Amino acid sequence: VVAYASHISRSADVTRAAWVSAFCYIGYKFLNVAITIVQVYEIHSLDALADLRLLINILLLASGCALVVCLLQALREAFAARGELLLQNQALRASRDRFLQVASQTRDVIWEVDSEGLYTYVSPASREIWGYAPEELEGRKHFYDLHPREGREDVRARAELHMSRRQNFVDAVNRLVTRDGREIEVSTNAVPYFDDSGAFCGYRGTDRDISKLKKARLRQQMLIAAVEHAAESIVITDPSGVILYVNPAFEELTGYTRDEAVGAHPSLLKSGRHSEQFYQDLWQTLLAGDVWRGHF
């Protein structure tokens, strides 16, 4: 019995230990009944009684040993499970803290919606970008509620069709209305998420305000158009003097094509009518960050 209890302890089989304990206890009770019968019928075989009592004590001891092994092993498993659970909880808290730190500092709104499009999580950036506090949106508004009234139902229908197909949203441009009534444009990226059973739960994603970026690009396009259509010859070089850009007026004035000029130095336009000092003064002025004025 001791050897078997030792094997149970090494194999960490608590159920087997419980069965051994139960079996020994039943044997102990059965032999007690046997002794009672012997005493009632006045069977005076002392050797038999002594043997029975010895066997009872052995079974009682075996039952106790198996029960102790069972309890100790159960405690060991309980402590091991508790330790593993504590480690998992620590890892989960660390992961949550990392996410919250990133979410609180990023310039994008991080969000989660359920399968109906209702916000279940919104990051703190929503205050600055949308004008809404997270608690004003979570459990209260659907994603389409932030879209302009005109065209809202169309946006909702297209988004729900996309969601029904469980497709990702990649750089989808949307117009949103902030809390103070301003319209902004955002770039949306999102992916569907599922529970452990594989059932669709909703979407998780980000919204980035691209309103300023689009305005900057528009201004850039306007500047490029102005330079391209200017009547004056315009040349752009790097700090070492290598030509990076010439406008059409340069091509018309000099006869050099853009392909011929880009990558060359302005010295290709040297006429031989200016001294070296003239060109030194020009470059020293430009490299100092000042404006050079003169005639070629």
Query: Main β-sheet: number of strands, strand sense, barrel status?
Result: 5 strands, antiparallel
Going across the biggest sheet, name each strand in turn.
Answer: 2-1-5-4-3
Global shape: elongated
Q: How many strands appear in the DSSP assignment? A: 7
Share of helix among residues? 40-55%
- Tell me the strand percentage band: 15-25%
Number of helices: 10
- Radius of gyration from the alpha-carbon trace, in angstroms: 42 Å
Q: What is the H/E string? A: HHHEEHHHEEEHEEHHH
Low-confidence stretches: 1-6, 8-12
Distance between the termini: 111 Å
Which structural class best describes the helix and strand composition?
A: alpha+beta
> What is the average per-residue confidence, as pLDDT, rounded to a whole number?
81
Description:
The protein has a five-stranded antiparallel β-sheet with strand order 2-1-5-4-3. The chain has a two-stranded antiparallel ribbon with strand order 6-7. Helix 1 packs parallel to helix 3 (46-105) and helix 2 packs antiparallel against helix 3. With 296 residues, it is an alpha+beta fold. The chain has ten helices and seven strands.
Layout of secondary structure:
Elements: H1 2-11, H2 14-40, H3 46-105, E1 109-114, E2 119-122, H4 126-129, H5 134-137, H6 152-164, E3 169-177, E4 183-194, E5 200-209, H7 211-228, E6 235-237, E7 243-246, H8 248-254, H9 258-261, H10 276-287
Antiparallel strand pairs: 1-2, 1-5, 3-4, 4-5, 6-7
Helix pairs in contact: 1-3, 2-3
Features:
single chain; 296 residues; alpha+beta; two-stranded antiparallel sheet; 10 helices; elongated; disordered N terminus
